[in-house]
């Protein structure tokens, strides 16, 4: 379904063109009684309709997978990509890491400055996450003031370093003005590990980090 949505304009343009050219072929070669210009016009109209419809499908699909406030991917897309990345990591025997992030002190910001200011802060945080991760990483808004990141082909050490760098940047930018920081839990996929189990343990790591606040905890730093 995702493949169709991604290439919907091309698929529908090709299908429309094929339908139109089939009619033209019937008229030209088999001498079926259809007006040639009518078929050429129908071909162009079908191709144009396919292009417009395909782009609408693309936009609707994209809007269903993105978070309106931050512009990040949403949880639905996160799950879709996590399944794909897990299958790829297993096949290639490559590392895969997930980070769960929670914003410390966000409720106080909403209570003091209002939800509009809170939404702007979430957008600013999203920009920091995106700027400090790769294009191949999946950065998603998990919900509320929680975020999640999939690090494909990344060791636990490298993933930890990225999240730690993000934590420092958030602290430097928002700690003094809003008393706002982030806590994060980072975990790597183990052989034959279930995705649900992976996320549960990532959430446990996040819980440990939130106990300290403004910290990054990896799954190897505490006994499961």
TrEMBL record:
Alphabetical list of InterPro entries matching this protein: Diguanylate_Cyclase, GGDEF_dom, Nucleotide_cyclase, Rev_trsase/Diguanyl_cyclase
Domain GGDEF: 94-221
Enzyme Commission code(s) on record: 2.7.7.65
Top-level taxon of origin: Bacteria
GO MF entries: diguanylate cyclase activity
A Pfam family the protein falls into: GGDEF
Transmembrane segments: 7-26, 38-57
Keyword Kinase: no
EC top class, as a word: transferase
Keywords: Membrane, Nucleotidyltransferase, Transferase, Transmembrane, Transmembrane helix
Record-linked PANTHER family: DIGUANYLATE CYCLASE DGCM-RELATED, REGULATORY COMPONENTS OF SENSORY TRANSDUCTION SYSTEM
NCBIfam families, per the entry: GGDEF (TIGR00254)
Name of the featured protein: GGDEF domain-containing protein
Lineage: Bacteria, Bacillati, Bacillota, Negativicutes, Acetonemataceae
